[in-house]
Amino acid sequence: MDLQDKPVLTPQTQTPIKSPAEHKPSYFIKGIASLLIIVISYYVGYQAGHKGYIFVPKTFQVISQSDAPTTVDYSLLWKAIDVLNQKYIDKPIDQQKILYGAVSGAVSAMGDPYTTFFPPQQLTDFQTQLAGSFGGIGAEVGEKDGNVVVIAPLDGTPAKAAGIMAGDIIVQVDGQSTAGWSVDQAVNKIRGLKGTPVTLQIARQGQDKPLTFKIIRDTIVVKSVKWSYKTVLVNGQTKTIAVITISEFGDDTTGLVNQAVTDILTHNVSGIIVDLRNNPGGYLQSAVDVASNWVKQGDLVVSEAHSDGTTITYKGEGNPRLAGIKTLVMINGGSASAAEILSGALHDHGFAKLLGEKSFGKGSVQELVDLPGGSAVKVTIAKWITPNGVNLNHNGLDPDIPVKLTADDVTAGKDPQMDAALSQFSK
């Protein structure tokens, strides 16, 4: 996330994952529908009750694909709320706060850091963030092993300049422990007005003590694609290698990659390096568009597997202008979501080997569903599967050519991963 949890959304929200051509909100989340029915029942009962609530015994059928109960008596929730209203010492009780808390608890019970309830103000903040210009530090944040971790610092941002690295665990934000925080909670705390400071305490692999970074927030606007050319010596001859660096899959990615490809084809290159390191993802459709420069029309790019057993497939579109050029894809622990989709597609179709470190493993699709009162729920609706059947969610992708990049390398201005990538074209 900037700390945007960039959900790869589906064409429905075309705002998040700044996400892949997210499907327009077309999925009706039955669990949420049930919750809304409950909320309505609660409201009617509350209005009619003389003291507390009138409970109408009701059992709701819910979707289940495991051994979990398929029916549940929600009167427990109403009774707990009734106890609060009758016995809690400080009155009056904010009923709106109770309602939002109940919905938030139900959503967080899924145990998925990317499935989140947004009260109205948080929804406004989230949508502002997805618009592409916001006050923050320029780092994508995710959840791993119960921790809030940095997926990737973005180039040219305060986070990158301060020395924040992919894989850093955010232990505290402005002195507050992140234990038990969701990704969106972390994002909301780290974001803020341009020019204001935020202090992060970081746990980093290889460091005995936590590191503290005081970072001044700035407006985060970053072009998602840049390209350059490097030379290697092959059998005594100098060859040109194009390097396409994609920092995220956003609104501008498809157009910029098309410009890059057109320019590259005028340079008679001997190879292409696609640098997806520290790319936290973005729009699914952008990833499909980029992959289509290699994957021919009609061939599978990625499958989207839904909980009801249905599968949506995304296939190559247009003219694969780069299919005949030797390609290498660079990944690391900051490569997530749409970046893993592109990596998996090029790898599984045999267009590219992967070099670097294991990717993040964020292969799920979120949909932003509007709820009453200006609130919304962002819910995980599907998982991504590569053409060869690799489940990207949690598993991630292993590099064919493992090469590490250490903190010492970064400090010294060295890039052994890029060096190794270039060496693959001189053999």
What is this structure, in a nutshell?
The protein is α+β, with helices and mostly antiparallel strands and 427 residues long. Helices cover 27% and strands 27% of the residues. A hairpin with a 7-residue loop joins strand 10 and strand 11.
Task: Please provide a written account of the structure.
The structure is a single chain. 27% of the residues lie in helices and 27% in strands. The protein has 427 residues and is α+β, with helices and mostly antiparallel strands. The strands form 6 sheets. Strands 1, 4, 16, 17, 20 and 21 form a 6-stranded mixed sheet that branches. Strands 13-14-15-18-19-22 form a 6-stranded mixed sheet, with helices on both faces. The chain has a 4-stranded antiparallel sheet with strand order 9-8-10-11. Helix 7 runs parallel beside helix 8 and helix 8 runs parallel beside helix 9. The longest helix has 19 residues. The protein is globular and about 85 Å long. 42% of the residues are buried.
